[in-house]
Design brief:
The chain is of the alpha/beta class and about 375 residues long. Helix content is about 50%, strand content about 20%. The relative contact order is 0.07. The two termini are about 65 Å apart. The strands form three sheets. It has a five-stranded parallel beta sheet with strand order 2-1-3-4-5, sandwiched between helices. Strands 7-9-10-12-11 form a five-stranded mixed beta sheet. It has eleven helices and twelve strands. Bound molecules: adenosine-5'-diphosphate. The site of adenosine-5'-diphosphate has 22 residues, from helix 9 and helix 11.
């Protein structure tokens, strides 16, 4: 089988230079390259579309277009994926940087090339582009399979909720009918069943919440966070009363955000502050300040805190530092928080000290 022949488009207004490049490329394996050439940028653009060359040797100083204009006309961003070697007599670094930014794979000075340098530049340019195409294809494939996985998780979580709801209902019915006939051990079994079913229900809800955030850009609207936090406190009322917690909330800003997402964000963080507390009544302080175009929020608790090595992990899905026996949960709450903050264009992080407490910080950019 013959080795592949590469089609090279030479765009240079000097016929001597074009001839020189051809000669350099024919050194060694003369049949490796075939050539199309032109002395004008406009015709070069037409030939590029008509001939689909494997690589372009482009003179920076064309009489009708300069090299950078040529590149920008070459289908905008797509030029970044094209194998182009630019040549110039100027040897000017600014031109080189500009050319590389505009998608050129390599940049050579006319007076200082030889056969080896030019052939290597062309091979490298073609390899770089082919590698980038492979990476792009892999990235697209990964995105596709992640989307499919999310969809799968969503469907499974959604479909499992109905039978689970029925199980919880039947268990309730069973206890109401048969409770008086059960002995202590049987009652404990039924209660364990109920607790397992409730855990599963929470897990399915969290998986659904988590997968719903994937690939969907949330809609933003003007949002009064004072109202959001009032609702959060209402939703957490049972655990606030149950633990005798205090939640201190200052005046909050009105900002552009997604109401459902931000409610969930504050609820997860405040809820965790209340939950991960032992031996004392939880005190949660919420705060906000405006800095460099961002609202920076914090939620501080006086809870159990976290070890240094745990802090790195907790924003990952299903990562937990405590067992379910110690503190019930699914390990999805903080990964949901991270996703929500990122979808709003901010960052989230935590500072914590074991047995003293944790402070979660997150930013949300100010939008007009
Ligand atoms: P869950 O609360 O369901 O376990 P999260 O994703 O909300 O899941 O939290 C992950 C883990 O991070 C928790 O299991 C816990 O170990 C730790 N964590 C989260 N918030 C706090 C907090 N305020 N104080 C101490 N540990 C925390």
């Amino acid at each position: 089988m013959n080795a592949k022949e590469y089609k090279i488009l030479i765009v240079d207004d000097s016929s001597d230079d074009r001839e020189y490049y051809r000669r350099l490329l024919k050194k060694g394996d003369a049949s490796k390259y075939s050539f199309i050439e032109t002395d004008s940028g406009e015709e070069g653009l037409e030939l590029f579309i008509k001939e689909a060359p494997d690589c372009i040797i482009l003179d920076y100083n064309l009489p009708d277009l300069d090299g950078i204009e040529f590149l920008s006309r070459l289908q905008g961003d797509k030029a970044l994926g094209l194998p182009i070697v630019m040549l110039t007599g100027e040897g000017n670094e600014t031109v080189a940087v500009e050319a590389m930014k505009s998608g050129v794979q390599d940049y050579l000075i006319k007076g200082s090339i030889n056969a080896e340098i030019l052939q290597l530049a062309i091979q490298n340019a073609m390899e770089k582009v082919s590698l980038r195409k492979q990476l792009d294809a892999q990235r697209l494939e990964l995105e596709r399979s992640n989307r499919e996985l999310d969809q799968y998780a969503r469907i499974v979580a959604h479909d499992l909720r109905t039978p689970l709801f029925a199980i919880i209902g039947f268990l309730e019915l069973f206890t109401s009918i048969a409770d008086h006939k059960l002995d202590a051990e049987e009652r404990e079994i039924v209660s364990s069943l109920q607790s397992c079913a409730t855990t599963m229900q929470t897990l399915l809800k969290d998986v659904l919440d988590y997968s719903r955030l994937n690939g969907i850009k949330p809609e933003f609207q003007q949002l009064d966070l004072n109202e959001t936090l009032k609702q959060v406190v209402k939703n957490l009322d049972a655990s606030i009363q149950g633990t005798n917690a205090t939640v201190n909330i200052p005046e909050m800003p009105v900002l552009q955000g997604n109401p459902t997402n931000l409610l969930q964000l504050f609820q997860n963080l405040i809820g965790n502050g209340i939950k991960f507390c032992r031996g004392r009544a939880p005190v949660i302080n919420v705060g906000v300040r405006l800095e460099d175009g961002y609202y920076q929020f914090y939620i501080q608790d006086n809870g159990i805190g976290m070890p240094e090595d745990g802090i790195q992990k907790i924003f990952g899905a299903f990562e937990r530092l405590h067992s379910n026996q110690e503190f019930a949960g699914t390990g999805l709450g903080l990964s949901i928080c991270k996703k929500i903050v990122e979808l709003h264009g901010g960052e989230i992080w935590v500072e914590s000290q074991l047995d003293v407490g944790s402070t979660f910080h997150f930013t949300i950019p100010v939008r007009e």
